[in-house]
Amino acid sequence: MKIVGLISDTHIPTRAKAIPGKALDTFKNSSFIIHAGDLIQLSVLNGLEKIAPVIAVCGNMDRHDVKEKLPSIDSVRVYDWKIGVTHDVGVLWGTSKMKRIAKQNSFDVLIFGHTHRPTIKRENRAFFVNPGSPTNPMPPFLVKPTIALLKITKEKIEPEIIQI
Fold first, then answer.
1. Long-range contact set of residues 73-82: C-beta below 8 Å, sequence gap at least 24
2. Of 17, 81, 119, 150, which residue is least crowded by CB atoms under 10 Å?
3. How far apart are CA 91 and CA 121, in angstroms?
4. Residue 66, SS3?
5. How many domains does the chain fold into?
């Protein structure tokens, strides 16, 4: 089994000074970590990379240097599963863009952020997962800090939201 840590919308240093220790501890057995954007600054990746390799995309609030270094969409294969990541899939306007991105890229899982609301949806055979935000969410979000894990075997994928 492979474990993939999922995180998004860390907003460091604007919402917190660092990623909460509980989030980092939860990722300690991860094969790699996926960050779905809104890091704000690249140094956020340094702490995560001490735990496991990181795949990250830029978000709408990221500084210019982050947007220059990170792509807006990326993917990785685990066993025969294709996992994609992007920041804003347009879920505030419905799920059609999210489904289109997954279909066009043959993603079995699409990780996204932006809303700060943890979400796990399954549509046909594809999972759509938003890990939420691990840093102190501000109004209008009013949700508890969360991250997520993907537990992946050759046969199945099990997403899990974790409140921290």
1. 73/101, 73/105, 75/105, 75/107, 76/32, 76/34, 78/2, 78/4, 78/31, 78/152, 79/2, 79/152, 79/153, 79/154, 80/154, 81/108, 81/109, 81/152, 81/157, 82/106, 82/107, 82/108, 82/109
2. 17
3. 12
4. helix
5. 1
Phi, psi of 146 (to 5 degrees): -145, 160
The tens digit of pLDDT for each residue in 40-53 reads 999 999 999 999 99
Distance between CA 23 and CA 134 in Å, rounded?
A: 7
23: domain CATH number? 3.60.21.10
Separation of CA 35 from chain center: 4
Contact 67, 87 (CB under 8 A): no
134 and 152 Cβ atoms separated by less than 8 Å: no
Q: What is the residue range of 7's domain?
A: 2-163
pLDDT of residue 75: 97
Question: What pLDDT, in 10s, does the model give residues 97-117?
Answer: 889 999 999 999 999 999 888
**Global pTM value:** 0.94
Average pLDDT score over residue span 127-131: 96
